[in-house]
Amino acid sequence: MLKIVHKVCCGIDVHKKFVVATIGKTNKAGVTDYETREFSTFTENLVQLRDWLVSSGCKEVCMESTGKYWIPVFNVLETECNVFVANPKYVKGIRGKKTDKRDSVWLCDLHKHGLVQNSFIPPWQVRQIRDLMRYRYKLTNLKSGEKNRMQNSLTVSNIMLSSVVSDTFGKSAMRIVNHLLEDSEDTTFDVAPLLDGRMKATAEDVSKSIQGTLTKPQAEKISVCLAHLDDIDKYKAVIESAVLELAEPYMEQIKLLLTIPGIKDIYTAIGIIGEIGVDMSVFLSARHLCSWAGLVPANNESAGKKKSVRCNRAGTYIKPLLVQCAHAAVKSKECPYFRLRFEQISRRRGKKKAIIAIAHMLLNCIYHMISRNEAFNYDLYRIDNAPKPKHPPEITKEQAILLLESLGAQVILPTAV
Asked: Which residues of 231-241 are buried (b: 16+ CB within 10 A; e: fewer)?
């Protein structure tokens, strides 16, 4: 018989419009009595759910992480109850025997025996930082998409500025684009006054690259893209201002992260704090944190055969962030250790696995730095470039005799007296 961990607990089946909650109370004989109620997802009804749990003496609650619908329930219950948010993959009911009531009872039974693994839910203020930083990440992706659309419009109009300038959105290129938008038919104007003096391309090459046909629809599309880019920059500035205000209590940890090679932007450090928080005690070890972030190989073995062990899809936001930091760390001249380690691994396993390994190393450093409240120690990763002394190999007497005889010498050993 399974051990009963929580004698009084609750399982909640979460939906968009309502939740089904079941409280299970186990007596001394090991018999569990269940009571099920249904509540709306309006805040008033969720407060009634919380009051019902408190009046029943239930402090342990378990529910699935169903989309975003679990968040309002968690926000109301977290002050009074110890809420476990379970991955649906690990608590899924049997197909064909699923109802809302049965699902809530099943969650209650699993939690009663301590079979549910809790998901990592950071504190409220960290969750606010996480939400804003993820939105900032989406805005950055949206900005990249608009740049690609504008570049596509220039390409289909036979305007090949990207072939002669390093950045299509640089000052010189944007002056030329704005002039074309004002008068799309004038492609023979003098571009020399619009070019920066540091440009490698000559005015003649730039003039040849814009000998295309910018139609009115394409010009309007480019104008909309440019206006949208300006709006996105404004929205990002507002988000960044709010993020800096929320991150003020965590500036000590943020400054520690900025000492790591590859992390020089404050928003990168804030993004990492928003994903993992500042309390490392919630993770069992640095390995557990790296596994949670999806930076370790999986275990997939059956009948003595090892199948694919590729990294899982966990860490949707923190994994790309750490991979970008890993690319910067590999190029860092302050700490060449990461570059050498990347080259060693890439020769054996390829560059993709090597960069994941460097990201794993960075997250391992972050865990210990935040836990110990210490800055990055470059001395631990210092490479000794001094040539190592070569000592002659030591050989035995028998080996020395064989070596001399192989060279044609006759060895006569003194006779023992």
From this structure: ebeeebeebbe
Distances (CA, A) of 259 to 11, 152, 269, 376: 44, 39, 10, 6
CA torsion 26-30-31-32 (nearest 10°) is: 30
Q: In 3-state terms, what secondary structure has residue 68?
A: coil
How many residues comprise the chain?
A: 417
Q: Which residues, in sequence order, are bridge partners of residue 26?
A: 32
Q: What is the pLDDT of residue 13?
A: 93
Closest CA to 327 of 258, 262, 259: 262
Distance (Å, whole) CA 342 – CA 337: 9
Write out pLDDT tens, residues 69-100. 999 999 999 989 999 999 888 888 777 788 88
Return the amino acid letter for 381.
Answer: Y
CA dihedral 310, 316, 322, 325 (to 10 degrees): 120
The burial of 82, by beta-carbon neighbours within 10 Å (0-12 exposed, 13-18 middle, 19 or more buried), is given as middle
Identify the CA nearest to 291 among candidates 275, 307, 273, 312.
Answer: 312
- Say if residue 46's pLDDT is above 60: yes
- Cα 111–chain centre separation: 29
What does the alpha-carbon distance between residue 348 and residue 319 come to, in Å, rounded to a whole number?
A: 22
- What burial class does residue 21 get, using C-beta atoms within 10 Å of its C-beta: 0-12 exposed, 13-18 middle, 19+ buried? buried
Contact 63, 108 (CB under 8 A): no
Token reading at 132: 């804003």
Which is nearest to 323 in space by CA: 269, 365, 262, 273? Answer: 262
Strand 8-14 to 60-64 pairing: parallel
Q: Which residues make Cβ contacts (< 8 Å) with residue 110, sequence separation at least 6?
A: 11, 62, 86, 91, 116
pLDDT at 385: 62
Spell out the residues 6+ positions from residue 14 whose beta carbon is closer than 8 angstroms to its own.
Answer: 63, 64, 66, 69, 70, 73
Would you put residue 277 in left (φ > 0), alpha (ψ -120 to 50) or beta? left
pLDDT tens, residue by residue, 329-383:
999 888 889 999 999 999 999 999 999 999 999 999 999 999 999 999 888 888 7
CA distance 115 to 7: 14
In three state form, how does the secondary structure of 297-363 look?
CCCCEECCEECCCCCCCCCCCHHHHHHHHHHHHHHCCCCCHHHHHHHHHHHHHCHHHHHHHHHHHHH
Gyration radius of the chain over CA positions: 32
